[in-house]
Design goal:
about 120 residues, seven-stranded mixed sheet, mainly beta, 11 strands, four-stranded antiparallel sheet
Length: about 120
């Protein structure tokens, strides 16, 4: 079983930066896909970014491309989401999620962390 623990987030002004972390533990996850999602009040959860643990390739939603960077640190078993040039519409609860392959059910979710961007 995979467990995900998130950290980071908080309040920032428009144009500012934040970094979210997602530390993975549990069963072997070297082949997992690590995802970031977000959910704003009154809206559905949406995909933000993804990084396969084995390849390090990165994937982004159009709304964050060029501003957000997803990365991983194998030694720390941690995935990061660096968020730059934050906009008011980035305000949401952010979640990391792990799946064994693309299209598979998500095996685990982080607890969520609030990101608030003030205008």
């Amino acid at each position: 079983q995979v467990q995900l623990v998130q950290s980071g987030g908080g309040l920032v002004q428009t144009g500012g930066s934040l970094r979210l972390s997602c530390t993975v533990s549990g069963r072997t996850f070297s082949n997992y896909y690590m995802n970031w999602f977000r959910q704003a009040p009154g809206k559905e959860r949406e995909f933000v970014a993804a990084i396969p643990w084995s390849t390090g390739n990165t994937y982004y939603a159009d709304s964050v491309k060029g501003r957000f960077t997803v990365s991983k640190d194998n030694a720390k078993n941690t995935v990061y989401l660096q968020m730059n040039n934050l906009k008011f519409e980035d305000t949401a609860v952010y979640y990391c999620a792990a799946q064994s392959r693309i299209g598979a059910p998500y095996d685990a979710w982080g607890q969520g962390t609030q990101v608030t961007v003030s205008s």
